[in-house]
Design a protein that fits this description.
Length: 416
């Protein structure tokens, strides 16, 4: 019998009526002859509300208590979904992450899955239950509850599909699949039929919220093919899988936008070994995630060093760096919030040139200033003023003809 893992995101279970709709779909899937494991997110807005409540109670709650609190959103939604299935005459049971056998490390709020023992799930499936698992959570070997990072129900689904050796893993969400750009930003964005894990990984890592990037990383590592599709429609979605040779024919698969970034520049840094290490080890010690780093060419033995972080970390980073700037004898620290990162992604970039030139020219023609650039083999990312970001996304989307997904030759054709 086919075993299917289906994950439903927060909007898909956002109201009692939507929960009933999910329940009907689970029952239909079982009636079609499948064993069904459903992974359920907290109802839309619940996790944010719990975080807000925690902040009102304590400015710095322990992460362990925070995880205990946050995990309740998914527990509630999965119990409600099981009730809905049962009320419709089906047979379901809900499990917490711990009951589902998901063991994690002790890295509270962004724990890593160490192991999954799906014995109980297998037993329940063979007793014809639809097994409903609370997403986003696991348990340490000591029995404490952990959560898997924001968007972590995606990871629960992918990891369970891998551990159960499922025949299909379907991620049901509030859009029809993965698009060439967030359809809420670019109306002309097109649904992709398939894409390589690496492309989705780069898009998710550059701000496309459609999948948690750790979930895609896990899928790539363990070869878990999955489909992102709509929970409101029956249509097929986007398949994420290992790349195939024909995928390189599409130069740009998609565009993503990461808002709320901040840029820090240290001017007049001595161009000597060890200085960059000193700056970034202080930042790393405070667990601040650094994204782009650019060092200018050295003039008269000094250089400027710029990097980006999330806007929320700016105050913290400034406090840490002010004394360091003095200690290393640099001239000054300049900071700027309100910037955004725009990335174009596609494995076809490995074999096609001219993408950066075309992207930069398009931005230039439209008077959008590029503040920083970084590249990987399959991505070009630029830092822009946040106020230009959405316009830039629409322009670049049109520039590369993404609404119509042109083949490689036309997508890199020189400007007229
Ligand atoms: P869920 O609650 O189902 O996990 P999310 O809100 O986490 O859903 O992710 C779905 C959202 O991702 C969409 O509503 C859409 O606005 C956003 N998104 C960002 N980039 C893309 C993209 N390239 N394709 C489709 N959706 C995207
Ligand atoms: N409820 C969690 C969040 O909002 C996990 C998830 O939805 O995947 O981040
Ligand atoms: Mg999500």
């Amino acid at each position: 019998m086919r075993l299917v893992v289906q994950k439903y995101g927060g909007t898909s279970v956002g109201t009692p009526e939507r929960i009933r709709k999910v329940a009907r779909r689970l029952i239909e899937t079982q009636r079609d002859g499948c064993q069904v494991v459903a992974v359920i997110s907290a109802m839309a807005g619940v996790t944010d509300n719990l975080l807000k409540l925690a902040q009102e109670i304590s400015p710095e709650p322990t992460k362990c208590e925070l995880d205990n609190l946050l995990s309740t959103g998914e527990r509630a939604a999965s119990a409600l979904t099981a009730m809905a299935v049962n009320a419709l005459g089906g047979r379901a049971i809900s499990l917490t992450g711990a009951q589902a056998g998901i063991l994690t490390d002790r890295n509270y709020t962004k724990a890593h899955i160490a192991n999954i023992s799906p014995r109980q799930i297998h037993e329940l499936l063979s007793d014809d239950y639809i097994v409903i698992v609370a997403g986003f959570q696991g348990q340490t070997p000591e029995g404490e509850t952990t959560t898997l990072g924001r968007g972590g129900s995606d990871l629960t689904a992918i990891a369970l599909a891998g551990a159960l050796n499922a025949d299909a893993c379907q991620i049901f969400t509030d859009v029809d699949g993965v698009f060439t750009c967030d359809p809420r930003i670019v109306k002309e964005a097109e649904k992709l039929h398939e894409m390589a894990y690496d492309e989705l990984l780069e898009m998710a890592g550059s701000g496309a919220k459609i999948m948690q990037s750790r979930a895609v990383e896990f899928a790539k590592k363990f070869g878990v093919e999955f489909e992102v599709r709509s929970s409101f429609k029956k249509s097929r979605g986007t398949i994420a899988k290992e790349e195939t040779p024909s995928m390189e024919d599409v130069v740009i698969r998609g565009i993503s936008l990461d808002r709320h970034q901040a840029k820090l520049s240290i001017a007049g840094v001595r161009d000597e070994p060890g200085i960059a290490g000193r700056i970034f080890s202080n930042i790393a010690a405070a667990h601040i995630i650094v994204d782009m780093i650019v060092q200018n060419a050295s003039i008269a033995g000094t250089t400027d060093l710029s990097f980006t972080i999330h806007e929320d970390e700016l105050e913290n980073a400034r406090k840490i760096l002010m004394p360091v700037v003095g200690e290393i004898g640099a001239k000054r620290l300049n900071t700027m919030s309100g910037v955004a990162k725009l990335s174009v992604v596609g494995i076809g970039m490995r074999s096609h040139s001219g993408v950066a030139a075309r992207m930069f020219e398009c931005l230039g023609r439209n008077s959008i200033n590029i503040q920083m650039v970084s590249t990987s083999e399959i991505k070009i990312a630029v830092i822009l003023d946040e106020k230009d970001a959405e316009r830039a996304a629409r322009l670049i989307h049109a520039e590369f003809g993404l609404g119509r997904l042109l083949p490689a030759a036309s997508a890199t054709q020189p400007l007229a």
